[in-house]
Amino acid sequence: MNSNNFQYPKRLNDLLNTLVAKYSATDNTAVLKQIVQSAKPELELEIGYDEWNGGTDYHKLTLRVPLDVFKLMKGDETSFARVIQRDINSIDEIRNEGIGAVTILVQEHLKTSDDKPIDESMWDSGFRIFISHKVEDKKQATKLKHQLELLGMTAFVAHEDIKPKKEWLSTIENALFSMDGFVALITNGYNEKPWTSQEVGFAYCLHKTKGVPFISIRSGDDPKGFVQPIQAFSPKSDNYAKDICLLWIDNPKLIDSLVNSLCNSRSFAESEFLFDFMKNIKRLTDDQISNLVNAFNENGQLSDCFKLNGESGCGIIPYLNKWSNSVDAFKMIKTKNPTTYTIKRKSVSP
Predict the structure, then answer these.
(1) Contact (Cβ atoms closer than 8 angstroms) between residue 331 and residue 299
(2) Which residues sit opposite 56 in a β-bridge?
(3) Is the pTM of this model over 0.85?
(4) Dihedrals φ, ψ of 103, to 5°?
């Protein structure tokens, strides 16, 4: 099978997020949950092939976890790997594909090509998005950066974020190595620029080998080269940060960023904006639900916000229950006015 047709690289994040939700259901799978939730996944394609029943290509999944999580397995990582392999294959059978092996390793410190530790100081907290652009499009890239920040993301724009006296090439390399997602602003002449072509090639390799999400914004030239087969869209307005995040809405790290941003909201307007966008999420982990509940109980910008407390619309409770089948949000929420939540019985579409 042509490697571009494999489904696992495209669906890996969804499958791992589903495993986290599955392992959140019972206490005896708590270690499995921590393994999958904390792991940096790597996918090696076509490690084996079975000709039976039309043929099946098998891939290898490597999960790199922090040392403290690795220790929880008490030397029995092989057994945990077998369970994860079984469960990920049982979630959704992808035609003619399967996970043939799972390996759990300790995370290594990220290093650049010259074997130096990665400098991640260019990032703020949140899902990390590298914005590739021509120097002439710095203004457009910076505008997108600020729009993404409103959604809890952190974005890197080379001509904006490289500080004086910092080495230009090494800073870009560090940002590429440590990014969570890549956006290419394909404007007129983008494909002919040597620097943007190298950034695209680097990002394409991470996309194919580690599942780092990659999208191109068509705003002039058509995508060419490595970027051509990657998902692209033409923005209909100047504000398309939401469109990018919607395409990646099932990414666990992006969801974490949205949850953390809502928890730390500093205004009613910010709370409403983030909550409205988060309605697109299909599932949250129990830890994320707990964080939201605690934030609602402690942060007045959430509990006093009409859209969240049920004064206007159904409030956040039906969504908390939609996002997790294992909690009763109404019992966890504190409210100054109990009658505010009489609407809690209303449900929202999954």
Answers:
(1) no
(2) 50
(3) no
(4) -125, 135
Backbone angles phi, psi at 299, to 5 degrees: -100, 110
- 156 close to 123: Cβ distance less than 8 angstroms: yes
80: left (phi over 0), alpha (psi -120 to 50) or beta: alpha
What is the number of helices (H) and of strands (E) in the chain?
A: 16, 8
User: Measured between alpha carbons, how far is residue 57 from residues 2, 83, 99, 292 in Å?
Assistant: 11, 20, 9, 41
pLDDT tens readout for residues 214-245: 888 887 766 666 555 566 777 777 788 999 99
Contact by Cβ (8 Å): 58, 49: yes
Domain residue extents for the chain: 3-106, 128-247, 259-345
As given in the structure block, the two tokens for residue 291 are 């964080």
Yes or no: domain 128-247 corresponds to CATH 3.30.565.10: no
- Band of residue 314 on the pLDDT scale cut at 50, 70, 90: confident
- Range 3-106: architecture per CATH: 2-Layer Sandwich (3.30)
Q: Where are the beta strands (DSSP E) in the chain?
A: 40-50, 56-65, 97-106, 128-132, 154-156, 181-186, 214-218, 232-233
Q: Residue 181 in contact with residue 241, Cβ under 8 Å?
A: no
Rounded CA separation 57/98 (Å): 6
Confidence (pLDDT) at 334? 56
CA nearest to 231, candidates 207, 255, 258, 249:
207
Residue 199: closest CA among 279, 106, 132: 132
DSSP 344: G
Classify 111 in phi/psi space as left (phi over 0), alpha (psi -120 to 50) or beta: beta
